[in-house]
Amino acid sequence: MAEHEEKHEESLLEKISEKIKGDSSSSSSSSDSDDDKPSESSMKARVFRLFGRERPVHHVFGGGKQADIFLWRNKKVSAGALGVATVIWVLFELLDYNLLTLVCHLLILSLALLFLWSNAATFIHKSPPRIPEVQIPKDPVLEFAQALRFEINRAFAVLRDIASGRDLKKFLSVIAGLWVLSIVGSWCNFLTLFYIVFVLLHTVPVLYEKYEDKVDPFAEKAWHEIKKQYAVFDEKVLSKIPRGPLKEKKKD
Predict the structure, then answer these.
(1) What is the pLDDT of residues 99-115, one digit of tens each?
(2) Cα R_g (the chain), whole angstroms
(3) Reticulon domain location, by residue (predicted)?
């Protein structure tokens, strides 16, 4: 009986040890397979995105109400903004309205209607119109002025840095951009250009957000081709142009 019990205990111990070895080997193989497979986050990190962005389009536009308007999250507000811009462009560009004339006509019409309504209310026994008291708040104006001041100072700093001859690539990019902008300005006036940009902001981002998985591969190919052509241009032309004195001091 004692020998039988010892053999039974040994067989149980062998089964337990085999079970533990099997579990450890399966867990190690599964961990190895998990290590071999790239994680989903790393795969997403390697996906090329236009302009090198790592955040969604909504966050690129600030993630607030302005992003909701440009990406048509609130369709009524987006359609209203685009409609108002279209009406303004039609009035000033197609109907040749002047700003001062339009403002005066709107004020005449609104004041005349309110005046007549206020005086007619006493005869028809109805309450006069409640004209709200309009005041410009102080804090938003100061915040806007500070933000505008910061952006203007940053633009001046960038222009100073470009003019000092430190970065030839940035200098050529700015010159090319200004040249293209001057050509576009010769085709249309400032109001039409502003309206075109406004319409593009209300159409291109929402279309890109919808089809970004199809657009980004083409953008990646185009970007690699541009980099290749720029490398050739840099080797043959830009590298032979002498740099400014600040660039030489940095090298020393």
Answers:
(1) 888 889 999 999 999 89
(2) 34
(3) 66-252
